Amino acid sequence: MSGLHSARQGGPFWLRRFSLLAAGVRANRDAPDPAALLALEPAEAFVWGVLPHAARSFAPCIIALPSSMALSAALGYLYCRILDTHEDLVTDAAQRHRALEHLTSRLTALREGRDPGEAPLVTHECSDPRDEVHSLIAGELPRLDPLFLGLNGDVQGLIIDLVSDMSQGMIWAAKTFDEQGGVLVSDSQLRRYCEAVLGNPIRFAARLFALTERGVRSLPAELETACMDVGEFLQLANVTRDIEKDLARGVAYDVALDPKRCSDTGDELAGAVRDVRARLLVRALDRAPSYEALVDGLSLKRGWMNASSLLMARFTERYYLGCANRVGLSAGERQSPSRVLLSCWPALLSSSWASKKLAEITRNLKRLRAEVLNQTSSMKAS
To answer: Would residue 17 count as lying in a domain?
Structure first.
C-alpha cells in the first residue's frame, strides 16, 4: 500500500504534502477548469487535482492524514462523491438506481480479478460549475481502477464496505424522497440520511486509521456510535449551507419547507428558510461533543492524524460561525482557510496541545448553540 506514495510524482507523499495543500487553497471552486483537470496524469495526480473541488474542507484534512492512509482516504472520498453526485444530479429514478448499485459491484469485481464492465450511462442535471466538476469526476471512474487495485487487500475491503453501505443508504434516501414528494418528514429520516452520506465515511476513516496505524480491524461499539453522531454533525453543515439550492431542485430536509406544500414566496420564504436553518444549526451543534469523544476514543498521538482531526474541527467551527451569521446572529469574524491551516500545525508536535484546542472548539460551539437558541426564542417572543 505504501508504494502508492512513491516517487511517481516527484518524490514521496510527505514531500509533496505541502504543495498539495497550497494547490488546494488556490483552487477556484467557483470557476474550475475542466479541461485542465481532465489532462492531469497519472491517475494519482488526477485524484489530488480534483479533490479540492470534490471535498471543500475535507480536502486539506485528507492531505494532512498520515502518508500510510492519505491516498486510500482520498480514493474512498472520491467514490463517496461519485455516489453523492448520482444521488443529487440524476433525476431518472431507474438510471440513478443502476448508477448507485454499480460502484459496489465494480469494486468487488476488481478485487476478485474480474472485468468490472462498463459503468452505466447517466445524465447529470448540473446547475453550476461545481456540479459540472462533480459530474466530470463521476465520468472518470475507470481512471481510479488502477489506484484501487494497488491498495492493500484489507483496505480494498474497507472501501467496498464504505461504498456498499453508502450506496444502500442513498438508494433508500432517493426512494424516500421520491415517495414523499422531495422531503424528509421526520428527525429519524434526517438522521438516517446523515448516517448514509457522512456517517459511513467517518466510520471508514476511523477504521482505516485503526487498520493502517494500529493493525486493528474493527472499532468498539461506542466509537461506531460516535462516528454516526459525527457524521450527522458534519453533514448538517452541507444541509444548512445548501437549503436554497436544494429547494430549487425540489428537495427539502425539513417538513416545514416541503416543496409540494410550501407556497411561501419572497420574505415569507426567506423567513421560513431562516427558521429551518436555525433549527438545523442547533441540532448540529448538539452533536459537536461527539467529535471530541471520537478523537479521544481513537487515542491519537502527536503527528499527522492529530493535525488532520484538528483541521476538520477548525473548518467545521468556521462553517458554523458563518451559518450563525446567516440566521442573523453576530457570531464574529471567521478565519480565512489559510489561517485555519496554519493554526493547526502545532498538533504535529503535541497531542496535549491539540486536545486542549479541540476542547476549546467544543466549548465555543456549545456557547454558539446557546446563543442561537436565545435568539430563536427572542424572535418567537417578539
So the answer is: yes
| CB of 203 closer than 8 Å to CB of 227 | yes
pLDDT at residue 382 greater than cutoff 70: no
Domain for residue 327, yes or no? no
| Distance between CA atoms of residues 113 and 195, nearest Å | 31
Helix and strand counts by DSSP (H, E) for the chain: 18, 0
What range defines the domain where residue 13 resides?
A: 8-153
**Is 70 exceeded by the pLDDT of residue 109?**
yes
Question: Nearest to residue 287, comparing CAs of 326, 231, 207?
Answer: 231
Q: For cell 438508494, name the residue.
A: 171
Note whether residue 143 is domain-resident.
Answer: yes
Matching residue, cell 469485481: 109
The pLDDT tens digits for 210-238 are: 999 899 988 999 999 999 999 999 999 99
Question: Would you give the DSSP letter of residue 183?
Answer: B
Tell me the C-alpha distance between 181 and 200, whole Å: 26
DSSP helix/strand/coil, 252: strand
Is the torsion defined by CA of 112, 118, 122, 128 positive or negative?
positive
CB atoms within 10 A of CB 64: 26
pTM reported for the whole predicted model: 0.91
Distances (CA, A) of 52 to 69, 74, 78, 264: 17, 10, 11, 36
pLDDT per position as a tens digit, 74-93 = 999 999 999 999 999 999 99
Give which of 20, 138, 125 is closest to 71, Cα–Cα. 20
Cell of 303: 503527528
DSSP 8-class letter at 199 = I
Q: How many domains does the chain have?
A: 1
User: Could you report how far apart the first and last alpha carbons of the chain are, in Å?
Assistant: 60
CA 202 to chain centre: 8
Average pLDDT over every residue of 190-213 = 96
Q: What is the DSSP string of 269-334?
A: HHHHHHHHHHHHHHHHHHTHHHHHHHHHHTT--SSHHHHHHHHHHHHHHHHHHHHHHHTT----PP
- Report CA dihedral (214, 217, 222, 224) to the nearest 10 degrees: 120
Provide the 8-state DSSP code for 119: P
Nearest partner of 215 among 260, 152, 274, 136, judged by Cα: 152
